[in-house]
Amino acid sequence: MFDRRLIQNFDWVLLLLLLVIAGISILNLYSATYTIRDVGGSQIFVKQIYWFAIGLVCCLLMTTFNYHILERIAYPLYFVSIGLLIAVLVVGKVTSGSQRWLALGPIAFQPSELTKITILIVLAKFFSEKAGLKSYRLRDLWQPFILIALPAVLVLKEPDLGTSLLLVGISFSLILFVRVNWKSLLVLLLSVLSLSPFVWINLKEYQKNRILTFIRPEMDPLGAGYHVNQSKIAIGSGMLVGKGYLKGTQTRLDFLPEQHTDFAFSVLAEEWGFVGTVLFLMLYLFMILWGLNIAKQSKDRFGSILAVGIVAVVFWQVVTNVGMVTGLLPVVGTPLLMLSYGGSSLVTTMAALGLLMNISMRRFMFSGQ
To answer: Nearest to residue 55, comparing CAs of 26, 76, 95, 94?
Structure first.
């Protein structure tokens, strides 16, 4: 029998936040592709509207079932995502030198985006089953380490350094949330640092150049440093209130590369200035705080951990992209949540937010209901 409390507890605030960000994103994408005639700017804009519609349907569908079902099928979902990542390396579609997409007829999607969600579900299941531990030591975490390392390495091989680092960052946010012994945490951090040389030698040459350019921006201003230099010019030229909608010169004259994907935030900053970008980032901040409140109110450990994980996805993608386009972090190709063009990222993000709504709606229920 349908429980009326599900409707009464529907999270309209989170849905409104999502729709407001989506609306701003569509306007920004139109501006970013306004002059991109050679790659079909208008087609990109229309495609993104379709992806938003599909994402909204997925978001609402994710609210229609008891999320504890995901706890029961966590490991099958995880292994399906691993299988898809392996399939990418074998038969994946190559675009711009990266093999990140699987083609299903006319549609191509990135399995790495799905992995962001499945890794959260499987880690939430693992830690909810270990509820008796007050703090975790390294010997208690060998299973999560394997669960995290396997998809992270597969994604790195595509190569997709940005998503690989996001998987690690999101996962370790969950580990910190469930409490790790501080001595174990110190050993863990030192171990991660010791692996840095291994990671470095396995990076592609262009990825190494991006990191070196971050350390020394003047090293290659017309090559590896071009993207971030043009981005900083665009952001700085927006000043306090921006140049106005469709009036950004860096965008209009095509000086700003990847302006509809990785550097979409730079378009927003040039046109709306410091005031506009702060107000926009406040939407993300409110979404993060709202999500943490959902985690706090959740009546079961699985739901609480999963909610924190979804919040971590939002937090790390915003921090990484904004840090990247402002020159505070190396350029690693991370899109900004819902603002950047991309179907796979958009649909999985909206599905994850739908799952967060699901947890919020069922906060009056006890585990197992």
So the answer is: 26
Confidence of residue 99 (pLDDT cuts 50, 70, 90): confident
Would you list the DSSP string of 59-80?
HHHTTSS-THHHHHTHHHHHHH
Sign of the Cα torsion 200, 205, 207, 208 reads positive
- What is the distance between the alpha carbons of residues 174 and 198, in angstroms, rounded to a whole number? 25
Average pLDDT over residues 230-234: 90
pLDDT of residue 40: 45
Confidence of residue 291 (pLDDT cuts 50, 70, 90): very high
Output the pLDDT for position 5.
67
Residues 6+ apart with CB under 8 A from 341: 29, 32, 33, 44, 47, 48, 260, 261, 264, 335
Concatenating the DSSP letter of every residue in 160-218 gives -HHHHHHHHHHHHHHHHHT-B-HHHHHHHHHHHHHTHHHHHHTS-HHHHHHHHHHH-GG
Please state whether beta strands 93-95 and 98-104 pair in parallel, antiparallel, or not at all (unpaired): antiparallel
136, β-bridge pairs: 180
Per the DSSP assignment, residues forming a β-bridge with 101 are 93
Residue corresponding to tokens 């949540």: 337
Q: How many whole angstroms separate alpha carbon 156 and alpha carbon 160?
A: 5
Q: Show me where the domains of the chain are located.
A: 5-361
pLDDT of residue 221: 63
State pLDDT tens for residues 108-157: 788 999 999 999 999 999 999 876 667 788 788 889 999 999 999 999 88
